[in-house]
Amino acid sequence: MILPLLQRELSIDDFVDRDQECRLATLLADPNSADQEQKLYSKEVASLVHRALVTLDERESLIIRNRFGLLGGNELTLEEIGRSLNLSRERVRQLEREAKNKLRAMVGRQVEVLLEGASDESELLLKGRMETQAPDIDGQVLINDTGENAVRNGEFYKVEITESMEYDLIGRIV
Fold first, then answer.
1. Under a CB-based contact definition with an 8 Å cutoff, are residues 164 and 54 in contact?
2. What is the reported pLDDT for 48?
3. Which of 84, 106, 128 is at the close of a domain?
4. Strands (E), 82-174
């Protein structure tokens, strides 16, 4: 009963030795664990890469991912990618260039979206499709912000794409 009364709380910055050379934080830190800042950075980079790659078709996305070792993959040569896709090295290079051009064009992109109504994902989201998206085949555009605009189903709206999910894009009406 008396022991808890004698114990005091320690700060992580308190010294734990008589010479005041070792802080508690030093003893608690795991040198084998991954740096939390690096984990957050890697997660953010992966999210940005995924958002960019969703704008490419499957073959272009595969070429870019494999060429640059994105999302945890290994970097492959044009020849290695060509073998896996049954394409020549030169054709893979051309497709890579086209994909890079598409990615550059998507930065800050605004698209026309046909508003279809409430989303099945959440009652807080609206759903719509770009002209290039087919129902039940392609993803959809989920709209999470209409601003001050009153919106109606069946109308086209300019939407700024703000992020992407595995199959769907997320945006706001501008």
1. yes
2. 65
3. 106
4. 110-118, 126-129, 141-145, 156-164, 169-173
**pTM higher than 0.85:** no
Q: Which amino acid would we find at residue 101?
A: N
Domain presence at residue 7: no
Residues 43 and 90 in one domain: yes
Q: Which of 124, 163, 125, 157 is nearest to 142 (CA)?
A: 125
Structure tokens that stand for 84 in this block: 């896996």
Cα–Cα distance between 61 and 67 in angstroms, integer? 10
| Structure tokens that stand for 164 in this block | 């992407």
Instruction: Please write the tens of the pLDDT for every residue from 2-31.
Output: 555 556 677 878 887 888 888 877 777 676
Which amino acid, one-letter code, is at 75? E
Report whether 22 contacts 16 (CB < 8 A). yes
Residues in contact with 151: Cβ distance below 8 Å, sequence separation at least 6, in sequence order: 115, 126, 157, 173
**In degrees, to the nearest 5, what angle opens at C-alpha 22 toward C-alphas 17 and 23?**
105
Tell me which residue has tokens 């595995």. Answer: 166
Residue whose structure tokens are 């609206």? 126
Supply the range of the domain harboring residue 73: 36-106
Q: Is residue 80 part of a domain?
A: yes
Domain count along the chain: 2
Final residue before a domain boundary, out of 76, 106, 136: 106
99 shares its domain with 43: yes
